[in-house]
Amino acid sequence: xxxxxxxxxxxxxxxxxxxxxxxxxxxxxxxxxxxxxxxxxxxxxxxxxxxxxxxxxxxxxxxxxxxxxxxxxxxxxxxxxxxxxxxxxxxxxxxxxxxxxxxxxxxxxxxxxxxxxxxxxxxxxxxxxxxxxxxxxxxxxxxxxxxxxx
Length: 150
Prior knowledge:
The protein is an all-alpha fold. It is 88% helix and 0% strand.
């Protein structure tokens, strides 16, 4: 198996799961969280983090590894599209560490049912950030698919 083929499989498989995962959170969870009372939201958000938070960063990192393998071993438009995807994924990862992770930690460090101060505001900030992250993730996956389809 060549590095281009390995990279394409890795970035397509992990990238599809990553993009799908963040899209499901954006479409399904955030609409529910927006309508929940803050106390109920704090419990549900914390439980969702326990399941989703370990998985999505790993899938994003695997997507980056596959995209780097592919970009470094291909040329032309496929390489360019893949580099764009790598940059978009990098923006997602860094901004998630700066914006989302501090919010996640405020909920994760609390006991079940305990609501952090300013939870209503944190919910809005996290939701808006996640919508932006979702757009970038879908754009990155579109670039990956476009690169492989060339």
